[in-house]
Amino acid sequence: MTAGAPFDPKIECMDPEARRELQERRLQGLVERLLGTDNFQGALLKDLGVTRGTDVTLDEIHLLPTITKQDLWDHYPFGLQLVPQEDVVCVHGSSGTGGRPTLIPYTANDVEVWAEVMARALAGAGATRSSIIHNAYGYGLFTGGLGVHHGGLRLQATVIPMSGGMTERQVRLIEDLRPDVLCCTPSYALRLAEDLDKDNSIEVGIFGAEPWTEEMRHEIEQRLNIRALDIYGLSEVIGPGVACESLDSEGLLNIAEDHFYPETDEGELIFTTLTKTGMPLLRYRTGDVATIHEPRGRRTLRRMSKLKGRKDDMLVIRGVNVFPTEIEAVVLELASPHYLIVEDRRTSTPQLHVAVESIQDIATALGARLKERLGITCRVHVLEPGKLPRTEQGKAQRLARWSQGQAPIDGLT
Ligand code: DLL
Prior knowledge:
By secondary structure, this protein is an alpha/beta fold. It folds into two domains: about 300 residues, ANL, N-terminal domain (Rossmann fold); about 90 residues, 2-Layer Sandwich (GMP Synthetase, Chain A, domain 3), CATH 3.30.300.30. It has eleven helices and 21 strands. The chain has a nine-stranded mixed beta sheet. The protein has a four-stranded antiparallel beta sheet with strand order 10-11-12-15. α6 links the parallel β3 and β4. α8 runs parallel beside α9, α9 crosses α10 and α10 runs antiparallel to α11. 5'-O-[hydroxy(phenylacetyl)phosphoryl]adenosine (DLL) binds next to α6, β7, β8 and β12.
């Protein structure tokens, strides 16, 4: 077996036409399930005149209503749950924007689906039964830690359930246990790289949960001397494992589309959970921006690009649309990967500050490159190495909004 071989070739390498039939059958089953309750999503379908599963087809899925995070909040905590409480085996979620949590009930079936797609992600990265997986995603309500955990168990590999933080201890265990796979956020991989020897045992990293660019990938690969792969997912859909790069996927992420049917609308990813039973979602608008690509290579799954950003992260500066990831790409040409973008909205003409760390005076050169690439003038602040906050746990905050009062970091005016 070659490295990164499919975990489940029957499904991952399936004839696309046969898969489409499977997806359609599953979609119709989902619609039946939604119609069978007085659930909000079922009511939306009934309003449209849908009376049974076979009324809908994949070709016409775009005519069905979408659902958003706002709908989840409106029915908080479990208004969209489709099964009796005794069928729920666990709950996950995210703290989310503005501290409003999103909670997702999982059935035993959902945990099975999750383990399966995560085992595929790990196997695609080259992990096998003999792998040792150092899992530094947070364990808890957040789906990162337990998602990797379920997948690792399904693969029958050895999972080290480190969770986030306590970097010194993490480094010690990596040195002692010699894992070949590292799972954590890309920003935490960089944090580990500050303390970990380049000559370490790790061969591949599976990084996600927050935006990161090709330039960041290059930086991590260099610093840790590993292959760095991207994994994407969101709690509403299942957690990590919705899509993941494999060693041979050419920078694109294989979508587990037999479980999560993808569409895009004006760049925004929409997913339908075809097989989930706890809180299935029909056409969930993710807010994430990416493109979908046709399959190539041994896997016949469609693939998605790295995320370009989130709809709500898009900055509009003097009429120019800018995603923080575009700024990251420029910053990494000249400075270290620790940076912070500050959107200054104290006056009616918003301004962008970009704070970086360097021992050289790169302010003018970086300002010029940002202007050239983005078409807007940014105020660049060069700080001494170590001055910007590091992320020890959870997701990195690369963007701060400044609408009044004190600057989010010292030194900005
Ligand atoms: O972050 C699930 C996850 C855990 C994915 C571990 C990958 C690894 P949430 O906390 O619900 O779930 O946040 C989901 O995070 O809508 C994206 O905006 C962002 N996100 C997730 N993966 C990536 C990625 C998990 N690879 C939200 N690149 C999503 C960029 C990502 N953004």
